[in-house]
Amino acid sequence: QVQLVESGGGLVQAGGSLRLSCTASGSIFGYAMGWYRQAPGKQRELVATITTGGGTNYADSVKGRFTISRDNAKNTVYLQMNSLKPEDTAVYYCNAARSSWPVGDYWGKGTLVTVSS
Predict the structure, then answer these.
(1) 35 C-beta neighbours (distance < 10 Å), count
(2) What is the DSSP letter of 96?
(3) Cα(65)–Cα(58) distance, rounded to whole angstroms?
(4) CA neighbor of 79 nearest in space, from 44, 48, 110, 101
(5) Which of 24, 76, 79, 111 could disulfide-link 6, Cβ–Cβ 3.0 to 4.6 Å?
(6) Cα→Cα distances 29→63, 99, 115, Å
(7) 102 preceded by a cis bond (ω within 30 of 0)
(8) Within 13 A of 11's CA, how many CA atoms are on the CB side?
(9) Separation of alpha carbons 62 and 74, rounded Å
(10) CB 68 within 8 A of CB 54
(11) Nearest to 30 by CA among 67, 85, 72
(12) What 8-state DSSP symbol labels residue 108?
């Protein structure tokens, strides 16, 4: 129902920055948005979330370095990643979820971020 497309991934040096974008096929109003990542051999983990009201939450490993934001008018959520580390290397996935009707849990196909040392 809701299609999410990530963009902005790529190869960067440690200490560099990237901004990921996730654009939805429809309105994201009413959805909590999040970024998750999965490194090789690891389980998918939460990176950051942003509520419909703009409240944010971050994994301890990225606090102070990453910033999640949303632009409802553009149906887009962003993840600004600064001071990147090699351990940030992963496929990053966008998520949209809502617990109220209509309930939904949607995922993008991911974008690869590679941080070289």
Answers:
(1) 26
(2) E
(3) 10
(4) 48
(5) 111
(6) 25, 13, 32
(7) yes
(8) 2
(9) 25
(10) no
(11) 72
(12) -
Retrieve residue 1's tokens.
């129902």
Q: Are 78 and 71 in contact (CB under 8 A)?
A: yes
Residues 6+ apart with CB under 8 A from 43: none
**How do beta strands 18-24 and 10-13 pair?**
unpaired
d(CA 48, CA 14): 20
* Alpha carbons 113 and 88: distance in angstroms, whole number: 8
Token look-up 């209509």 returns 102
The mean pLDDT value for 82-88 works out to 98
- Which token pair is 49? 């979330």
What does the alpha-carbon distance between residue 9 and residue 92 come to, in Å, rounded to a whole number? 8
Grouping H, G, I as helix, E, B as strand and the rest as coil, residue 117 is: coil
The C-alpha atoms of residue 39 and residue 113 are separated, in whole angstroms, by 10
Paired tokens of 57: 């939450």
pLDDT cut 90: percent of the chain above it? 93
- Asked if residue 56 has pLDDT above 90, the reply is yes
